[in-house]
Amino acid sequence: MPELRRDPIVGRWVVLAPERGERPSDFPPVQVGTARNTCPFCPGRESMTPPEVYAERPDGMRDDGEGWSVRVVSNKYPALQIEGDLDPKSDGVYRSMRGVGAHEVIIESPDHSANLASLPDDQIAAVARAARERILDLTGDRRFRYIQVFKNFGAEAGATMEHGHTQLIATPTVPRRLDEELGGFALHERANGGCILCSMIEQERASQGRILIESDRFLAFEPFAPRFPYETWIVPTYHEGAYETSSDDDLLAFAQILGRTLRAIHGALDSPPYNFVLHTAPINEPGRPPLFHWHLEIMPKLTKVAGFEWGTGFYINSVPPEDAAGVLRSHLDI
Amino acid sequence: MPELRRDPIVGRWVVLAPERGERPSDFPPVQVGTARNTCPFCPGRESMTPPEVYAERPDGMRDDGEGWSVRVVSNKYPALQIEGDLDPKSDGVYRSMRGVGAHEVIIESPDHSANLASLPDDQIAAVARAARERILDLTGDRRFRYIQVFKNFGAEAGATMEHGHTQLIATPTVPRRLDEELGGFALHERANGGCILCSMIEQERASQGRILIESDRFLAFEPFAPRFPYETWIVPTYHEGAYETSSDDDLLAFAQILGRTLRAIHGALDSPPYNFVLHTAPINEPGRPPLFHWHLEIMPKLTKVAGFEWGTGFYINSVPPEDAAGVLRSHLDI
Asked: Where does Zn(2+) bind (chains A, B) (predicted)?
């Protein structure tokens, strides 16, 4: 059973999950191209994964069989486990609890070698719907306070499986990164009224220099203070805190801008390793939901995070976002 | 001139330093072993670096010549630059200032292929003294509020030069990571009285399970909630906030425990890439100095930081610190 431990000075939680040290990887030890012969995410090998918790497949076809277009299963080597209670403990200055949560894998398509940038928009939309449905379902578990949807693309970004997948982890506390963002939204609301991200959208539209794509309902742009070269955010231009309230139409529009953005990143930067993280409102909030505005942060991993960043929390970035926007714009739709 | 930009939501500062994109690296493109033929940190090539700001060398020998045992120079490709004022600007929700600061390199020894783990203790102590002297000198510049001493060892940890070196960067604001730690110290003091790190030391001594080395004046231990496998902290067992108050005797004792710790890490983990960061009290504090206790955090880089960590600020670690302490203890002094 994983354990959650809290750093007594800064309150940062760490997941100790010794079992994850034993999980297999299909790269780099396996040759690219041979992983497909044994890949548990490929159609026909559904029995190699834990049972599915969600799938899109034609009516009448059976669960855990072939025919799916998107499939969600529990992670076989979970960072957090679904059973039991938190059972918080304290010992002097130290606090810990059992590593209760959920860790699931969204298999993005049946095609082993596809990735989000190569999939058609309606298939990306199916992945976006799967994330929404899993958030809605996991929200029913009152132990959970947040659901982090994220993607690791490429070994350098922490991926251990080649077959295209996105992940989600439900956590029993609101993560500190979210807490920081919520604090920023609250501070701006008190000082200026309104939503800080709505203000940012307005300012980006006025200046244009960092915008990559503006569509009917979404904006893709390079943030003013990016941690990483070519860091790109996608935000709904309408104010909405919770991703899971999105309609199918919203998610198709989101998939369209996400696909175009990822294709520009793949084209401009030679399919770089990247992470993306979805930031959405906490779930099962007691009382009034806090002010928030959901968004996706895409972070190509072209440089190493080094001592200065670890020590200070400052980031050094050698590519100004205005330059990055220009480069990515020149790779749109080609 | 680099620019500091503030993320308007979470207040995180980012250093935009386009010039650093052009800096040379002597690995991996250069073959290991050939870098020494052109290395600007080697004796005899002092003119290839900016002028030295500190060195230990026998009396009577000239600055910027040979004969030094430790030498500190400005970084030729600085993240922050020493000239000018901050000139803070704001534009709607966005804030920025000029990238004013200092970025220096401590060349740890004349020996190109030495590293801190292979150097004798008195040479490590010379590096520790150089860091102290530079902090003391830079504190005289009232624009600076913090000095981050850090080391990147190995390309995977962000090093771009092979010749053993430690770095320091003086920043015009107190970094958020330090602010978080200062907040934790203040919270504990208000709630319980006393220093949280002194309490941790007491608790570690009582339980022993995470201790690697206990010497007369220092403790090396695996923290209760480590972000990374084999993360190791070194702390003075006496309460002191500011590293730069250390006497030569203190720093020799620090060098001894640092050397033993690094040799155990090199031995147990096959000379892994690692970062270390020194956390010490802010400088030029207006008013009463805040409660703090200086310490060094050593972070081997054996795993990738991935989407979950970026999204949440939680860390997943597959090696419990009690296990890591056992492994490292078995590699002490061999």
From this structure: 39, 42, 112, 163
C-alpha–C-alpha distance, residues A281 and A185, integer Å = 11
Instruction: Examine the residue annotation and report whether A279 is marked as an active-site residue of this protein.
Output: no
Distance CA A270, CA A232 (A): 16
Q: Record the tokens describing residue B193, joined without a space.
A: 């009285």
For residue range A162-173, list pLDDT tens digits in order: 999 999 999 999
Nearest by Cα to A143 from A178, A174, A166: A174
Mention every residue, 6+ apart, whose C-beta is less than 8 A from residue A77.
Answer: A19, A20, A22, A23
Q: Which two tokens stand for residue A3?
A: 């354990």
DSSP B46-80: GGGSSPEEEEE--TTPPTTSS--SEEEEE-SS-SS
* Count of CA atoms in the C-beta half-sphere (13 A) of A122: 2
What is the ipTM, given to two decimal places?
A: 0.93
- Look up tokens 């997943």; give the residue: B316
**Chain A residues closer than 8 Å to B158 by CB:** 303-307
Q: What is the CATH number of domain B3-329?
A: 3.30.428.10
* 8 Å CB contact of B225 and A8: yes
What residues of chain A lie within 8 A of the CB of B231, using their CB? none
- Tens-digit pLDDT profile for residues B253-307: 999 999 999 999 999 999 999 999 999 999 998 888 899 999 999 999 999 999 9
Q: Which residues pair with A298 in a beta bridge?
A: A232, A276
Nearest to A14 among B196, B225, B278 (CB): B225
Neighbour count for residue B110 (Cβ, 10 Å):
18
Report how far residue B256's alpha carbon sits from residue B234's, in angstroms, rounded to the nearest whole number: 11
What's A51's DSSP letter?
P
Candidates B31, B34, B110, B33; CA nearest to B70 is B110
Q: pTM of this prediction?
A: 0.94
What number of residues does chain A have? 334
User: Percent of chain B beyond pLDDT 90?
Assistant: 86
Residue A217 CB neighbour total at 10 angstroms: 16
Check A320 against B18: CB less than 8 A apart.
yes
Closest residue by Cα to residue A114 from A182, A63, A41: A41
The pLDDT of residue B288 is 85
Q: Which two tokens stand for residue A79?
A: 């960072």
Exposed e or buried b for every residue in A172-211, given b needs 16+ CB within 10 A? bbbbbbbbbbbebbeebeeeeeebbbebbbebbeeeeebb
pLDDT tens digits, one per residue of B60-81: 889 999 999 999 999 988 899 9
Say if CB A222 and CB A325 are below 8 A apart.
yes
Residue B273, φ and ψ in degrees, nearest 5? -60, 140
Q: Which residues pair with A81 in a beta bridge?
A: A100
